[in-house]
Amino acid sequence: MFWVILLTGVALYVYFALIKPFTYWKGKGVPGYSVLDVCLEIFLSLMRYRTLADAIIKLYTDFPNRRYFGAYQFSKPIVIVKDPDLIKQITVKDFDHFVDHSTFAPLPNESLWQKNLISLKGDQWRDMRATLSPSFTGSKMKMMFGLMTNCAKQFVKYFKGQNENLVEVEMKDVFTRFTNDVIASTAFGISCDSLRDKENEFYLMGKKLTSFGGSFKDNLKAIGFLLFPRLMKALGSTLIDPKIDNFFRKIISDNIKEREEKNIVRMDMIHLLMEAKKERSKTVDNSEESRQKRELTEEDITAQAMIFFLAGFEPVATLMCFMAYELALNPNIQQKLQTEINDTLNDCNGTLTYEALTKMKYMDAIISESLRKWPPSVAVDRMCVKPYTIQPANSNENPLQLNQGDTVIFPTMGLHRAPEYFPEPDRFDPDRFIDNNKDSVNIYAYIPFGSGPRSCIGNRFALLETKLVFFHLLLEFDITVTEKTQIPIKLSRKLQLAVEGGFWLGLRQRSNE
Questions:
Q1: Is 456 flagged in the annotation as binding?
Q2: How far is residue 228's CA from residue 223's CA, in Å, rounded to a whole number?
Q3: Tell me: the pLDDT tens digits for 47-83?
Q4: Which residue in 168, 177, 333, 466 has the fewest CB atoms around it within 10 Å?
Q5: Residue 211 belongs to a domain
Q6: Does the bond joining 453 to the residue before it have cis omega, within 30 degrees of 0?
Q7: Residue 88 has pLDDT above 90, yes or no
């Protein structure tokens, strides 16, 4: 009798915990994956047998002729939306139903993660977004142009100083050092030269902060936070290493203190946030609205600076790597860009200006095509914050009710590689984004920075530093393939978009003719 009860209990547990959750979409009449499909995908992801980019492309190509379908994040039901019109509906027209990102895990002991712009929700997000938005306007980018230019010239000077006709370079290493120096200068008020001072503390801490997801152990840790957040907290596990947390807190605290004591003004992100803090202090009173729009704290500033580092260090360097790779494989495109660079510099009488850089159409097109073919963020999410119904658009659909907390995923990589939106999607073709061709691009099938009010706030910053580094680099060098260059490219199985064995390319000094 005991064994009957025990086996019955085990069977019931297995059914309700491991089988029933995966019948959710079938019960709603929505096409979706079976239990076996889900188990296989979890196994392949955990064991790193499939790249994340391949998994996202598979998500897009599965269930053809469907605007959306059901999938699972482990046992949690999620909706994969692949139709550009529906993406527009969710991210723009009905944005008030999908204001937030889904929560990675409740992390009450990690306030810097909780308070950053990506993690904030609802009115707190709106408030912080409104505070930060002026930091990324064209006029503010123009202020940071000089700081970025210094970093770009310093970057190129390092390679010129090697006095070799051809320098073989692992691009991911050097571009992360460049993005590190740009962020250190423009966001933290710190001068770094990470190519010469390879072990500087700011760079080493940044590498540690952004290295999550590179190993089997990291994947297990991520699963732990997703499925067992309370247990992970009880075990003392943290998403952000306490040493890194303390490092960024101290940098910001010391920086603010020095600026206030010495009345230092530096046109960077910390200055802009300090000014916002002063303005917020003036307007805070005892009204309910004012209490909700609370005063900015030093911790708020630190949280935004840290997430700015996370977003600008690895992803922007990844964009630069893939762009350099495509230019090396397509020398005709590279030469055309170098012609535009030469013409632009001549028009500026030898000194590049912000206005001239922003008018470079072919540079813009190459960056746009790099982001299409190799989006650093291969998928985008939104979380439903109040009940919402996806209305049927054809006879094979029924109304789909989404509830608060439900997650919607847009498969960016799949959309960008879809031949119905981008013919010959595996071909690198910047002309897709030139003049009339650019106007024909479906902007909701092209979402490298997300879509709608919750799209990436720092996209102008990322584009500006990318333009600057390639402008100055291609002015002096040709980017070439070498014996170490991987052709075709082989993506790694990390959580981030990366390449097995690195991005090995050559920098060949241009002739003065």
A1: yes
A2: 8
A3: 666 788 888 898 899 889 899 998 887 778 889 999 9
A4: 168
A5: no
A6: no
A7: yes
